[in-house]
Amino acid sequence: MVDLFIKHVLGVGLDRPGLYGKTAGYYGTVEQQGRLTLHMHMLIWIQNVLTPQEICEKIMDPSSDFQKAMVEYLESVHIGEFMTGTMESVGKRLAEEDHKNPSRVPPTETLPEAPPEKCAHDAQSDCAKCQDYMSWWDRFKHTVDEILYLSNRHT
Fold first, then answer.
1. DSSP labels for 91-135?
2. Model pTM?
């Protein structure tokens, strides 16, 4: 997989540039995560690109087209949304739940609830098994939002 990435994405060993431009060099190392899955960290040197200083100057220049394009790109790909509402509404709901039940344990300190078995037919409002399954999905969404709210907010 890594050899394919180096060849086809970086264009190393080919008579054409890679997706990012002409690769001048690369270095990578593979490491294992806690769940024994492998992943790679890689540095790539691309010929004829902006230096870090040039990038900094273009980003800091408020009249720069580069700055405008970079901000638009970052805003388009980095979207943090909750499944059940806005950050404010999720925070308000969690505060209300904590007030009603001060001994409630947050999902960051518990194991997740396993999903119930799904019906073989399309969801039906008069089917108890379907109701149980849809109710689990609602709880799942609230749980995910709480984990995000507690663990992944930058304030």
1. HHHHHHHHHH-TTPPPGGGSPPPPPPPPPSSPP-TT-HHHHHHHH
2. 0.51
